[in-house]
Amino acid sequence: MHDFLVDLLICPKCYGELDWQIEQRSLNHIEKGEARCQVCHTSYPVQDGIGYFLLPDSGREDLWQEVDSHLVQHLQQNPEIEKRLMGVPLETLSPADQFFRAMVHEEREEFELAEESQSVANSGIYTDAYLSCWQSQTKYLMDRLASNDKPLIDLASGRGYLVEKLAQNHDFPIVATDFSPKVMRRNRRWFEYLGISDRVSLLAFDATKMPFKDASLEIMTSNLGLPNIKGPSELLHELRRVLAGRFMSITHFYPVDDNQNRELLRQANLETMLVRDLASAAFEQSGLQVEFTNICLSLAEPTPVGVVLEGAGIDALPVAETNLEWCLLEAQQSSKAKH
Length: 339
Ligand SMILES: C[S@@+](CC[C@H](N)C(=O)[O-])C[C@H]1O[C@@H](n2cnc3c(N)ncnc32)[C@H](O)[C@@H]1O
Hints:
The structure is a single chain. The protein is α/β, with parallel strands linked by helices. The chain folds into 3 domains: 3-49, Single Sheet (N-terminal domain of TfIIb), CATH 2.20.25; 70-124, no CATH class; 127-156 and 207-338, Vaccinia Virus protein VP39 (Rossmann fold). Helix content is 36%, strand content 24%. The protein is built from 12 helices and 11 strands. The chain has an 11-stranded mixed β-sheet, sandwiched between helices. Strand 3 (43-47) and strand 4 form a beta hairpin. Helix 3 (95-107) packs antiparallel against helix 4 (111-125). It starts with 17 loop residues before the first strand and ends with a helix. S-adenosylmethionine binds at residues 156-162, 178-180, 183, 206-208, 223-225, 228-229.
């Protein structure tokens, strides 16, 4: 993690100041060390360049555990299926199987093969309109950041699709964040492979309990990350607390009258961030003024299931064909809330 982060970070549990013990550095990065809260004495390790600011009760996996995914375990136990997935020409597989093959390559750290499989899979999994709206939002966001020189904090970065694009096109420092230590460790190796690890920091934390000082962050982003974060009101409360400048999130919304998908969104408690009017109301209620720019509509279909990995699914949504409204959701402190 970049050493400038030391000035921005606080204890995510009680918001106390931190004492730092830095054991190993490389250039402007902290590789190994520990931050300890002056108030509640919780300690947060930095290991292999990744800052772990997860709360002990967050229910996340053990920080240092290296577990093979269910998929890799399944293939180890079923060598015949492994051969049919990994040992045949890529183009003979169904799009969903191509996607799973990318996951396996990635776990084996065969990054070039993972990239190839993923990119072939995407064109069979998503409609052209879906992919072009997504690309349009990514490009729009990158253009909007052309003159930025402040550090950018990306929330729920996952496997870092957006972080990767930003780091390849801009010079400002980027902080990739996610509450999964496993994803962070994978990103460390992936970003090294891409040659961008000197400009990207990795922080593991829960977006509903952020380890940042009040009004400390000028630029924050997310790429389709918001609906994944359970507890939208806690997330927005934290966003309002830490945000000094602008939050820009690539987002898509479901139509108000799409009863089939909305029923599932309701059951899974996902409606707030996936229905535009509800998202707008939730941001405003939290004291954040919100606007939706670069709007773009696309047909979206349920993602296909595996053939070799029989019946295995990719995205849980949509469950029925729909028209998604894509946009860049932009939020800042509302002027009412500022005074
Ligand atoms: C599908 S990814 C989003 C795509 C990603 N932004 C990209 O550009 O590739 C969603 C991520 O949200 C993360 N996530 C879910 N809940 C979270 C939380 N409360 N705090 C931080 N990350 C969270 C998950 O671990 C997952 O990696």
